[in-house]
Design brief:
It contains 14 helices and 13 strands. The chain has about 300 residues and is α/β, with parallel strands linked by helices. Strands 3-2-1-4-9-6-10 form a seven-stranded mixed sheet, sandwiched between helices. The protein is globular, with a radius of gyration of 19 Å. About 40% of the residues are buried. The C terminus is likely disordered.
């Protein structure tokens, strides 16, 4: 398939990190056109990192999160002619990727009879059960991205009050609109669809058992310690194709040093999280917070 990817970027330090450059290089190997859109005003020295990788670069501040970047990249493709492509992908910098070959991913998903696809499906949203394909990596076939409803949806992206509004209106809203229009979705990973946000709560199994090429950065940055433990990540990543030093260097400036995990053996900690993740949010959160308060320590790995 002839493909294009729109890659959304944002960095608090106005940096294109080495893990992002690596991700884009790997995408470029399997995708004909790479459009890089940052929500930051980036310096020329930063954008030069993408010479020979990105075909188009937009690096101008906006307040529309990832979907604002997807919108701006999509405008470029519309101007050039959407019919030039068979598949358009939205991806962002929220993952360390790819852990495994993207060739295998695309080969497998190209055989699927579907209209759009992603890596994982989340059956739950902010207000209950809202099945949607998670948009850190989502691909659309031609019949979808040339549909006027899809074009209107992407073009309608505007600034929202907060990230939750973005998730509700755009990440969940996009799948909702496509399902209502009769489009069929597929996912690379079939496990854990009954768990809210498996990319966080089941990150280890997604990699070791499902061979997902993606690991959410927030897990290792210790931003999800209410939901999971980052224990053992070196061992997990060490068994993949990913250069582990890219993660280590990124964590030096991004990891939440003051965040805490329960001070318990890894096996007990994983059992605790796995058990609690099936409980309703109102029960799980107070319990895990109590555990963290009693058994807490600064954690780095």
């Amino acid at each position: 398939m002839k493909r294009a990817v729109i890659f959304a970027h944002w960095d608090n330090n106005l940096t294109i990190d080495d893990y992002v450059v690596y991700y884009l290089k790997e995408l470029k190997k399997v995708i004909e056109k790479v459009i890089f859109v940052s929500a930051n005003n980036l310096s020329e020295n930063e954008t030069k990192k993408l010479d020979g990788i990105a075909d188009n670069i937009i690096a101008k501040h906006h307040n529309e999160y990832d979907f604002g970047s997807y919108k701006r990249g999509f405008e470029i493709l519309k101007a050039e002619g959407l019919s030039n492509y068979e598949e358009i992908i939205f991806a962002n910098d929220s993952c360390y990727a790819p852990l495994f070959s993207l060739d295998k991913l695309f080969e497998e998903m190209e055989e699927k009879e579907c209209d759009f696809w992603g890596i994982t499906k989340n059956n739950y949203g902010l207000k209950g059960k809202n099945p949607h394909i998670q948009t850190y990596f989502i691909a659309f076939r031609k019949n979808v991205f040339m549909d006027n409803d899809f074009i209107k949806f992407i073009s309608s992206v505007k600034p929202e009050l907060d990230k939750n509004s973005v998730i509700e209106n755009y990440e969940i809203g996009l799948s909702k609109m496509l399902f209502q229009n009769g489009y069929k979705a597929e996912t690379f990973v079939k496990e854990f669809e009954n768990i809210s946000n498996p990319t966080i709560k089941k990150w280890k199994s997604l990699i070791t058992k499902s061979k997902s090429p993606f690991l959410k950065c927030s897990v290792l940055r210790l931003k999800n310690t209410d939901y999971t433990t980052a224990d053992g990540w070196h061992e997990v990543i060490g068994k993949t194709n990913y250069p582990i030093e890219l993660i280590e260097n990124n964590l030096k400036r991004t990891q939440e040093k003051l965040n805490t995990e329960p001070k318990l053996p890894t096996g007990i900690k994983e059992f605790l999280y796995n058990s609690l993740n099936y409980l309703p949010q109102k029960l799980r959160v107070p319990f895990i917070n109590l555990v963290k308060k009693v058994f807490s320590s600064t954690s780095s790995k």
